[in-house]
Amino acid sequence: EELLSGAKPLAGRKAIVTSGPTHEPIDPVRYIANRSSGKQGHAIAAALARFGADVTLVSGPVTIPDPAGVRVVRVERAEEMRDQVLAALPADIAVMVAAVADWRVASAAGNKIKKRPGEAPPPLHLTENPDILKIIGHHQARPKLVIGFAAETENVAENGRAKLEKKGADYILANDVSPATGIMGGDRNRVRLIGREGIEEWLEMGKDEVAEKLAALIAENLAADLP
Ligand code: CTP
Ligand code: CA
Question: Considering Cα of 210, then 215, then 220, then 221, what sign does the dihedral take?
Fold first, then answer.
């Protein structure tokens, strides 16, 4: 009840949020990307700031406006995102919402790749990107609360649970990003909150409402261990 009274339950807490897609260059004019809009991550950064937290938002390329009351660090590539997240440590809270590209081109071309008449199209050799959530979840300066998302198109709960373990997160918000759900790019979300004690189904609601509910959960968790 305190939490809803207009108080700032996260005053004095530092939070790092990632949001948006990453762009992984192929050559100077082309890149690999995904359909993330940044809406959910930006909404979470804004909600944490409303709750009084000192928020650093590390955002990939998005077209939506910067949220109010938040320090925004813009990046393009996953490796830049990792570097900026690490530079923002220490923190009490990390919420990794970005749809980080899982792979990048092993060696992006320095000049625009040209068509060569009569030759086969150029192959793209991919290499895996750093897993930022996993790095933070196992870091020596690990934030007290580490939260991730799990974007799935099948076996949402099981895959989300496996990510919780593998990445050392306290909570995973698992969602079904199949095109038919309209979640990727849309304004609404339906998530399952996966914690160490079990799973909680949240009703479908606006991404801003998911953000508010998550900020309240974070405040509740941290209230239990005041410094
Ligand atoms: N994540 C990250 N760095 C990556 C990949 C993912 O920080 N290189 C984070 C995302 O921000 C999200 C969580 O890990 O909070 C899960 O992302 P997701 O893409 O669902 O999982 P992956 O581990 O990449 O597995 P896959 O895409 O194969 O399902
Ligand atoms: Ca992924």
Answer: positive
Whose alpha carbon is nearest atom 17 of ligand 1? 150
Which residue's C-alpha comes closest to atom 12 of ligand 1?
Answer: 149
> How many CB atoms are located within 10 Å of the residue 26 CB?
17
Query: In whole angstroms, what is the distance from residue 181 CA to residue 43 CA?
Result: 19
- Are 3 and 9 within 8 A, CB to CB? yes
Q: With pLDDT > 90 as the criterion, what percentage of the chain qualifies?
A: 87
State how far Cα 220 lies from the chain centre.
21
For ligand 1, whether the C-beta of 160 sits within 6 Å is: no
As for the ipTM of the complex, it is 0.99
Q: Specify whether the CB–CB gap between 6 and 29 falls below 8 A.
A: no
Active site residue ranges:
34
CA of 171 to the centre of ligand 1 (A): 13
* Residue 118 pLDDT > 70: yes
